[in-house]
Design goal:
Layout lengths: L1 E3 L4 E2 L2 E2 L1 E2 L12 H7 L2 E2 L25 E8 L11 E6 L11 E7 L2 E5 L2 E9 L2 E9 L8 E4 L2 E10 L3 E2 L5 E10 L5 E8 L4 E5 L1 E9 L6 E8 L4 E8 L1 E9 L11 E6 L4 E6 L4 E5 L1 E9 L2 E9 L4 E7 L11 E6 L3
Parallel strand pairs: 1-19, 5-17, 6-12, 13-20, 21-27
Antiparallel strand pairs: 2-3, 4-20, 6-9, 7-8, 7-10, 10-11, 13-14, 13-17, 15-16, 15-18, 18-19, 21-24, 22-23, 22-25, 25-26, 27-28
Protein name: Carboxypeptidase regulatory-like domain-containing protein
Keywords: Signal
Length: 337
């Protein structure tokens, strides 16, 4: 079961976009933000580069080396990106495997390559954003500096439970998908398992983001989030869920009994999760549930309600009754930091 996310527009828990707005600005220029926070900039799938007409001469032939200076901008009117770039230079002539040979690479900010006269494909990537240009290095004269526009921005994600209850970062993860659905109804996964407060570099556009709380049950939510070129978008998503700890006890507040098998059911009787142990922890979407405890071939069951942001202990009282014996129980609410 998945809930659509609410995105806060007050008290700083909002989609916050860097720009020229006055007042409480939480996101600075994107190039600065990308240097200030952890980022995802791992290997990415390269765009197809074989759609151009190949040159008739081999660019690796002997010749005088020429300097080619390269610079990348987040937006057409923005300043140069000084860190986090990966540059790649390809030959336009496919190799025996049908792929374009990679001739040179560079990482960092603006860069320069020494190349023999000829044609090349230059690609620059910035996280999941990239740009490609066909460049001709002349035999005579200098080549103007090549400036590639990435049309890129960034996204930084977090989430709360209920209206404003903090969720420990280790219990949160995000997946970023394309906003468009394919013919089979699925979306293309762009980056998965993003941790809170990580800056993800993306091309400008709208993305479908899912957030998982706890990771193993039904506590997930989703939202469509827009990334603008040259800006850092901060989004805090809202989970209508809470964390609970299950305990089979002989008396209210008593010690939890080990070797207990647990099943959580919805009000309709569908199984949500199963666990074993004295006090397993579950994260559940708000709603009505039943906790079923099995201990020494006896069944103990109770109903309880989950309220968003209200973490709790669900205590099931041990009974001397036979199998399938229903017992009274208590629910103890806890405050979360």
């Amino acid at each position: 079961m998945r809930a659509r996310s609410r995105i806060f527009l007050q008290t700083g828990l909002a989609i916050l976009v860097a720009g020229t707005a006055t007042g409480n600005v939480f996101a600075e220029d994107a190039t600065q933000a990308f240097e200030s926070f952890p980022s995802i900039a791992g290997p990415r799938k390269m765009p197809k580069l074989t759609g151009f007409s190949p040159m008739t001469s081999d660019p690796l032939a002997d010749g005088t080396l020429k300097d080619i200076k390269l610079e990348a901008l987040l937006t057409e009117k923005g300043g140069p990106v000084e860190a986090g770039l990966t540059w790649r230079v390809f030959s336009p002539i496919p190799g025996s495997d049908g792929k374009l040979p990679l001739l040179a690479t560079s990482e960092g900010g603006s860069t320069a390559f020494n190349l023999v006269p000829g044609e090349y494909f230059v690609n620059v990537s910035f996280g999941r954003a990239s740009a490609t240009r066909k460049v001709r290095v002349p035999e005579q004269g200098a080549l103007d500096k090549q400036v590639l526009v990435l049309d890129a921005g960034g996204m930084k994600l977090n989430a709360v439970s209920g209206s404003d209850v903090r969720i420990p970062p280790a219990e949160l993860s995000f997946d970023v998908y394309s906003a468009d659905t394919k013919s089979d109804g699925e979306r293309a996964l762009i980056v998965e398992d993003v941790k809170p407060n990580t800056v993800v570099r993306l091309g400008a556009g709208t993305y479908h983001v899912t957030s998982s709380y706890g990771g193993t049950t039904n506590a997930s939510t989703a939202a469509d989030i827009q990334v603008e070129a040259g800006k850092l978008t901060e989004a805090t998503m809202q989970h209508r869920a809470a964390k609970l700890t299950l305990k089979l006890v002989s008396e209210p507040g008593g010690e939890a009994i080990a070797n207990t098998a647990w099943t959580i059911l919805t009000s309709a009787g569908d199984t949500v999760s199963e666990a074993n142990g004295a006090f397993p922890t579950q994260v559940l979407l708000e709603g009505s549930y039943s906790a079923v405890a099995r201990y020494k071939d006896k069944i103990y069951e109770r109903d309880f309600t989950v309220k968003a942001g209200v973490n709790m202990d669900v205590e099931v009282l041990l009974s001397s009754g036979g199998n399938n014996a229903n017992t009274n129980a208590s629910v103890v609410s806890e405050a979360q930091d």
